[in-house]
Structure formats: structure tokens, C-alpha cells
């Protein structure tokens, strides 16, 4: 439940994760705090659906644990209620896993839409606009260019200005955005990026859609499978509670039998004594 809540509401945690996991010294741009926040929002569109599901499952599992506790120490019938609740949660969890692993990109739909929006709105780094800085930093962090590739910036409807400024240099008439360059290959020489863009000095052949998928899906796989492990543990605990209940019932029955036998013996002894004295 805690993990789900963090994934849904904690932008600070997601932003920190973005900085520590994806920020590298070779990134070509000096980041702005607001750009990190926008990128954190972008990643949260991926984690939020899974986070909501995990939060709900965690809440229901916590509720089932409370019901099981009540069942053991107070009302035995509540253990059966807990078992039914865990079964319903398990069924829903299996359905979720089936949907997720059959079409994982469903969870990335909103992120893909936001990424396409940023590509259309991108102008240049020197424009100092939020959308441009956010996408520029994102491309530089993930070593990608555009949505599918760098040609997306030359499509109809985009706002790419075809010029930029980096350090003390101006770069007019460039074919692709400056953040598509690999940092160590940015320069003024004729074969450097952005004077010339190719697969060795830039990322123009690598789209950010595929990079986003490759970065987020392994994390989601780990979270989904991990949550299934937690559910299995809860089911095991529920079975143990049921076994303990049966053991307790057996002990109660045995105790009743022992008490009854003891009472019968006392009755026979009393009758014998009475018979002795009266005889």
C-alpha cells in the first residue's frame, strides 16, 4: 500500500528517482529544477495506474489482516470472510497481471501522448520555454531524439526553429535539435554535431518512445511481480490462520471430552462411596 501511494502521489520521490537513475555527467544540458519536475510528471503518468492498483490491493490486504486477527481472537467466522476477501483480491490481481503482460504499452499511453505533445511544442533551448527545456533534458538524459526518431522535428505542425545557442556559440540552420547531439561530439568543426548529424555523433536514429519503454517496463515488471509475492504471502498467512483455528477447535473438543470423562469418573466414585456407606 505504501509503495502504491508513493508511486501515485510522491512527485518528490519520482523526481529523485529520475535524477539518480537517469542523470549522468555526459548529459548535454545543465538542468533546470522545473524541467526535472516536468519529467517526474511524465514518469508518474506511467507509474500512477499501477500505483493506484497497488494502493487498493494493499488497503484490502490490510483490511483482510485485521479481519483475520478478529477471527482468531474473537469471532471465528471472520476467518472465512478473510479467506473470501483474499481470494477475490487474488483473482483481481491475476486479471491485472494478464492484462499487463498481454499489452504492457497500455500503461504508457498517457506518457506517449505527453511525449508527442512535447515534440510538437519544441522550439529550441535558447527559447527558454518549459516544453523545450523539458524535452531537451529528457532527450539528453535518455540519449534519444524525437518520438520515433529525429525526423519527427521536421514533420508538419512542429515548432522547431532550426537554430540554437550552446555555451558561447550560435548554431543557425541546424537540421535537428541540439539535445539530439551526444555531448562529447558537440563542436564547431565541420564533422561535429550539430554541424553534421549522424549515428555516431548523435541520437537521431533512436526515438524516445522506445527509450521510455525500455527504462520503465523493467521497473513495472519488478513491481507487479513483487506485489504478487506479497499476495502469495498473505494467502499463506491466511491458510496458517485457518490451520491454527482448526487446531484450537480440536483442543477445545479434546478438553471438553477430558472434562466429561473426569466428571463421569467423579460420578462413579461418588456412587461407589454412597453404595459402600449405605450397604
UniProtKB/TrEMBL annotation:
Subcellular location, principal: membrane
Name this polypeptide is given: Tetraspanin family protein
UniProt-listed Pfam families: Tetraspanin
Gene source species: Opisthorchis viverrini (Southeast Asian liver fluke)
Keyword hit for Transmembrane helix: yes
Keywords: Membrane, Transmembrane, Transmembrane helix
GO cellular component: membrane
Domain of life: Eukaryota
Compartment(s) where it occurs, according to its Swiss-Prot or TrEMBL record: Membrane
Classification of source organism: Eukaryota, Metazoa, Spiralia, Lophotrochozoa, Platyhelminthes
Ranges annotated as spanning the membrane: 50-73, 79-101
Membrane topology: Multi-pass membrane protein
InterPro entries: Tetraspanin/Peripherin
Amino acid at each position: 500500500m505504501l509503495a502504491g501511494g508513493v508511486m501515485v502521489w510522491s512527485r518528490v520521490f519520482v523526481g529523485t528517482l529520475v535524477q539518480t537513475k537517469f542523470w549522468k555527467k555526459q548529459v548535454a544540458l545543465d538542468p533546470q529544477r522545473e524541467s526535472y519536475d516536468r519529467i517526474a510528471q511524465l514518469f508518474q503518468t506511467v507509474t500512477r495506474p499501477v500505483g493506484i492498483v497497488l494502493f487498493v490491493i494493499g488497503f484490502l490486504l490490510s483490511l483482510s489482516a485485521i479481519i483475520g486477527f478478529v477471527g482468531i481472537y474473537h469471532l471465528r467466522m471472520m476467518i472465512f470472510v478473510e479467506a473470501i476477501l483474499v481470494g477475490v483480491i487474488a483473482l483481481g490481481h491475476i486479471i491485472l497481471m494478464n492484462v499487463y503482460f498481454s499489452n504492457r504499452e497500455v500503461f504508457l499511453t498517457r506518457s506517449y501522448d505527453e511525449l508527442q505533445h512535447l515534440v510538437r511544442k519544441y522550439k529550441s533551448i535558447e527559447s527558454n520555454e518549459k516544453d523545450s527545456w523539458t524535452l531537451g533534458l529528457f532527450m539528453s538524459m535518455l540519449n534519444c531524439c524525437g518520438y520515433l526518431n529525429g525526423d519527427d522535428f521536421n514533420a508538419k505542425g512542429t515548432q522547431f526553429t532550426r537554430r540554437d545557442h550552446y555555451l558561447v556559440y550560435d548554431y543557425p540552420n541546424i537540421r535537428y535539435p541540439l539535445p539530439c547531439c551526444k555531448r562529447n561530439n558537440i563542436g564547431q568543426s565541420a564533422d561535429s554535431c550539430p554541424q553534421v548529424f549522424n549515428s555516431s555523433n548523435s541520437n537521431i536514429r533512436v526515438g524516445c518512445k522506445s527509450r521510455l519503454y525500455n527504462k520503465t517496463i523493467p521497473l513495472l515488471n519488478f513491481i507487479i511481480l513483487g506485489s504478487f509475492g506479497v499476495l502469495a504471502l498473505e494467502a499463506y498467512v491466511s491458510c496458517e490462520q485457518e490451520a491454527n483455528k482448526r487446531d484450537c477447535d480440536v483442543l477445545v473438543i479434546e478438553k471438553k471430552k477430558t472434562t466429561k470423562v473426569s466428571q463421569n469418573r467423579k460420578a462413579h466414585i461418588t456412587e461407589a462411596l454412597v453404595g459402600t456407606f449405605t450397604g
